[in-house]
């Protein structure tokens, strides 16, 4: 058994992409790291291989404040591979805020990294192949406009606060949202004025990952989120994507129930485990 650290995302993808695609929805984050454009020179790409060169464990990290992301090939538990990964990364001086992976993998890696850790969040990874159209909420759907930049970064910061995930400054959020203008990937539901949103967060080889689903508290319970997610999902499928997927807070039965009614099905549970 041996540890391998890759010099580039391309070399990493050559070894692991086909393995990740066997569970494409579960591995949407790792796959997007390989397919995404931009400078990745500071990112960590690594694997643990058996004596024959077969990949048993895949790992990637895009730097602070994010967690290291892991996948055990075929979801087959491999404690020895996790131990090798933890030992080698510690020897190289890496320090992570936590780990993100299928909940069994996340727990077992965390145990090998530090005795002090806790589950920060559990998320259902859900997949949709066909939309079950709900009753449409009042109003209509439209794509992101430039004048939406006055409020969308604040919505997305509030979304992150609600989910207890990375909280960014508004100017950083503004630049992120600007990147979606004119691309038909960010939808706003409007009922006299904007009341809800959903956007494409990333792509895999065959699917699209939906995120940034947010409705201000005053407008919740009126079906706006269901309608905007249904519309975005349907349009993505009509554009040729084979599926849509998303992460849903496993502790929030309301949001999970909304997605299930739309046709999303639970595939697995991902845990974000924080190291103390």
CATH architecture of the largest domain: 3-Layer(aba) Sandwich
| Structural shape | elongated
Widest beta sheet: strand line-up? 1-2-3-4-5-12-6-11-10-9-8-7
Structural class: alpha+beta
Largest sheet: 12 strands, mixed
Work out the count of structural domains: 2
Question: Explain this structure to me?
Answer:
- The chain is α+β, with helices and mostly antiparallel strands and 276 residues long.
- It folds into two domains: 2-115, Aminopeptidase (3-Layer(aba) Sandwich); 127-268, Aminopeptidase, CATH 3.40.630.30.
- The protein is built from eight helices and twelve strands.
- The chain has helices at 9-21, 28-35, 79-91, 103-113, 152-163, 170-178, 224-238, 253-262; strands at 2-5, 44-49, 55-61, 68-72, 98-102, 117-128, 140-143, 186-190, 194-203, 207-214, 243-249, 265-275.
- A twelve-stranded mixed beta sheet has the order 1-2-3-4-5-12-6-11-10-9-8-7, with helices on both faces.
- Helix 3 links the parallel strand 4 and strand 5.
- Helix 3 (79-91) packs across helix 4 and helix 5 crosses helix 6 (170-178).
- The longest helix is centred in the C-terminal third of the chain and has 15 residues, at 224-238.
- The chain is elongated, with a radius of gyration of 19 Å.
- The chain starts with a strand and ends with a strand.
- The model has no long low-confidence stretch (mean pLDDT 95).
Give short descriptive properties of this protein.
Aminopeptidase, 2 domains, alpha+beta, 276 residues
In short:
This protein has 276 residues and is of the alpha+beta class. Helices cover 33% and strands 30% of the residues. The chain has two domains: 2-115, Aminopeptidase, CATH 3.40.630; 127-268, 3-Layer(aba) Sandwich (Aminopeptidase).
